Amino acid sequence: MRPRFTAAASLAGILALALPVVAPAQVDVARFNKIKSRLQQLHATYAKMPPAAQKMMDGTANAQYLYSVVNRLQPSLLKAKKGASRAELAADLSAASVIGPVRVNNNSTDLAYSSFVGFTQSETNTAQCGSNVVVGFNDSGSYVQTLLFGTGGVSFSGVAVSHDGGKTFKDLGPTPAGANPFNFVIGDPLIGCSDSQTFYYSQLFATADSSGNPLTALAFSTSTDGGNTWSDPVASVTKDGFAHSIDKDWMAVDPHNPKNIYVSYTDFDGSFNNPACPNLFRTGAEVVMSNDGGVTWGAPIVADSICSQFGENGLQGTHVVVGSDGSAYVGYVTLNNFPVGPRQLQVVSLGKNATPSAPVAVDAVVGVGDTFFLQGGFRDFLGLDLAIDKSGTANDGALYFTWDDGRDKSIPDVGSTSGSYAFADVLLRASFDGGNSWGFAPTKVNSDIQPRIGYGHDHYQPGIAVDSTGKIAVCWYDRRADAQDWTYQRYCAESTGGPFSNFIVNPGFNVPSHGNDFVVNSVYAGDYDGLTSDFLKAPGFIGAFMTVTGGTNPDVKAASFQ
Known about the structure:
The chain is mainly beta. It is 11% helix and 39% strand. The protein is built from six helices and 33 strands. The chain has helices at 11-18, 29-48, 51-56, 59-72, 86-90, 140-149; strands spanning 102-103, 121-129, 132-139, 154-155, 157-162, 170-174, 184-193, 199-208, 214-223, 234-240, 244-253, 261-269, 281-290, 301-308, 314-322, 328-335, 343-351, 360-365, 373-374, 378-379, 384-388, 399-405, 410-412, 420-422, 425-431, 443-444, 459-466, 472-478, 488-495, 501-510, 531-533, 541-547, 555-561. It has a five-stranded mixed sheet with strand order 4-7-8-9-10. A four-stranded antiparallel sheet has the order 1-33-32-31, with no helix packed on it. The chain starts with 10 loop residues before the first helix and ends with a strand.
C-alpha cells in the first residue's frame, strides 16, 4: 500500500525526490513568474477577508491554496515528461459499452506528472442538447499540465464531450485559459446549451488589467461545434481583485429566448464602502445577464446583500433558473454566526425584467454533519439546488428547492464544532406561485429511514432537474448501505407528483478519499454535481458525479435515465 502523507509541508521534499531536474530552457521563467505573482495577489486578497468569510468561500479558497503549491513547484523541480500532452492522451479513451455509469474523464493520464499531484476530478456540471452532452469538472491535472507546459494562462478545469447522448465521452483536457499569463480559470464549472451545436462554459476567473492590477471575475467560454472546441474565456463580470472575491457561480439559459443567459454568483466584498453595507463587510447575491449569447454582459443585478462586522453573517451558493416564459429566480442560503449558527434557504424572483423581489424564506436548514464537515473530514455546507419546470405541462413554472438536512437524526459528538453530529436526509420543497409560498412541510426524497438508535446515514449534495414531461429527478451521494456511515453510493429518485422512487445509478462502494492530491484544498471533495435534462426537450435525465472506487483517485462518471 502506498504510504499516506498528511503534512503538506513535506511536499517540497517529496517533489525533490520524485521529480528529476529539467533544463532551464524547457521552462518559460517569465511566464511562470507572472503566474506566481497572480496567485500571490489572489492569496493576499483572500488573507484580508474575515476568517468566517474565508471559510464560506469555495473556488476562491481553492485558488488561493494553489499559491502555496506553486511555490513548491519551482521549475528546477518539475518533471518534463516528453511525449503526449494530457489532451493528446485523452484521444486514447476507450468507448464505454453501457449508459450508466460511464467514465467521463480519461484517468489513464492521472499519474502522468506525479504520484502526488494532478489526479483529482470533481464537482461536475452537465448540459445536454440532443445527442450532444458536455460535462465540466474541476481538474487538478489540467492545472499541472497548463502550469508546466502551457504558453498562456493556467486552467483548473476540464471538459468532456459525448455525441451519442452520454453513452461514451471523450476527455478534451484543460479548458482554454487564454494567451494572457495572468489569466487563471479556477473551476466551479457550469455548462449550458442553446442548440445542438452551441454550448457555454462558465467558471471562476482571476486575471489582471493592463497595469497588472488584480481582477476577480467570471470566465465565459463558448463552443459552436457541439462541445468539441472552446473559445478563450471572456469575462462576464469583473471587480477589483484587491477588495472583492467572486465565488460560487451558477448559470441558466432562457428557454423562451436562448440568447438570454443568466449567471449568478456571490460577491465577497471587502471594500467596506458599499452603500448597502457602509463600513461593514458584505456578501452579495448578484446576477449578470447577456442578451446576445454571451458576447456582451450587463451590469450586476443585486438580488440580496448581507452585512456583518467580521464576515460571520453572509450568504453563499446562488443558483439561478429561468422558466419557459423567461421568468428568472435565484436561490441561495443565508449563514448566520457561521459555521455554527442558523441557516435559511431564500429565493428572489427576478421576473422577466431582471427586477429583484424581496427575498422569500423557503425553509431553515437544520445542521448537517457537524455544521461544516461530514464524516470523513470534508466540508459540506452548500448541499442545495433549485430547478424550475419548463415542460409546458400543468405544473409549468413550478419551482423545486432541494437540500441536505439533519433535522431527523442527531447524536452527541465530542469532536464536532457544535457538540453533535446530524445525519443528513435529502429534502425538497415546491412552490406553485412563483416562489411566494413553499407549502407546509418539506418532502423527504431518500426512501430509507434513519435508525432511532445508534448511527444514522448521510445523504448529501443533491442535484435536481425537471424534464420535458414534468417529471422531477434528484440525485445525491448516499451512505445508507454502510452501517458505519463511511462509504457511499450514487442514488437518484424520480417523481411525477407522488412519492419519490429511489434507485442506484452507481452501485460501487466509494470511499470519501480527499486531501491526497496536494494541489487540492485538503478539506475539499466538491460542493455540487449538477443534474440536467435535455434543453431540446427529449425526456429523461443525465448527470455526472465524482466516484472513488479504488485507491485515492477521484474520477468522474455519468449516468442517464428516464
